[in-house]
Amino acid sequence: MTVELAYAVILALGAAFIGGLVGGFALMRRMSLAGDAVSHIALPGLGMALLLKFNPLLGAAFTLLLGALLIWRLETQTRLDAEAVVGVVFSASLALGGLLTPRDDLVEALFGSFRPPSALEFVAAALLTLAILIGLYRWKDGFVLNLFSSELAASIGLNRSQLDLAFSIIFAMTVLLVLRFLGALLAGALIVIPPAVARHWTSRLHPFFAISAIVSVGSVAGGAGFAAYRNVSLGPAVVMVASGAFVLSILFRRRPIPSR
To answer: What are phi and psi of 72, to 5 degrees?
Structure first.
């Protein structure tokens, strides 16, 4: 394995780990599917960057941050559910991204690639991963308390709007990390599927996050191995491994599905 390829593997596994953790919070906030929608918000930035010949991830970062701020603002101003607001922004972004992205680059933008990163990309992604971990550690208690009782969170001085904004930014930057490898169409899979698997196996908070992160990392590792062995695209391979884990979690779940 070359040094450049090792860097790519490290970044992919780090992104998977972060995706599993953030996906756990997203599931509890009932916005798991927003991960799939938010990833599409990166498309206009990707398309513009490809047209103007600069790093596509910079364009994706800009539109993801802009989208996170827009979603937060619309949610606070309109009082709509997060998924409704994300759905509106997602639809507009997908259409605009399809118009801007050059046809020759559209497949990679949608499905990602496993090309080795430059030294600058590696350092930037590593720093972003560290920043997200610090943010999760810093605000984890506030996130959890805000989920279960926003009134209690407010009574002890926590600002719900600021917590929502912090999570929106962390959520968007997590999508950016995963986007490089899985593309705009499949990036949300590592936010949606691993916590759904974990939910079948435990109702305890810390094991839930641990299982979600393990499933996410395992999906990327297994998908990368399968993609290399069968010479297929990484993104679909990773998602199929994660989907297989979800099917197994249904067949061998430890927690019964609640009756309606």
So the answer is: -60, -45
Q: Which has the minimum average pLDDT: 88-102, 138-152, 186-200?
A: 88-102
Number of alpha carbons in the 13 Å side-chain half-sphere of residue 231: 0
pLDDT at 258 over 50: no
pLDDT score recorded for residue 91? 67
Measured between alpha carbons, how far is 25 from 140 in angstroms, rounded to an integer? 9
Q: How far apart are CA 259 and CA 191, in angstroms?
A: 26
Q: What is the pLDDT of residues 119-159, one digit of tens each?
A: 888 999 999 999 999 999 988 888 888 777 666 667 777 77
Provide the H-helix boundaries in 101-252: 103-111, 119-148, 150-155, 160-186, 189-199, 205-230, 234-251
Q: In whole numbers, what is the pLDDT of the chain averaged over residues? A: 81
Burial of 101 (0-12, 13-18, 19+ CB in 10 A): buried
Amino acid at 33: L
Instruction: Give the pLDDT mean for 32-56.
Output: 75
Task: Please give the Cα distance from 191 to 248 (Å, whole number).
Answer: 18
Task: For the chain, list the domains and their CATH numbers.
Answer: 3-251 (1.10.3470.10)
**21/194 Cα distance (integer angstroms):** 9
Residues 6+ apart with CB under 8 A from 185: 39, 40, 110, 111, 235
Structural tokens at position 150: 């926003």
Side-chain half-sphere CA neighbours of 46 within 13 A:
30
Q: What is the DSSP letter of 118?
A: P
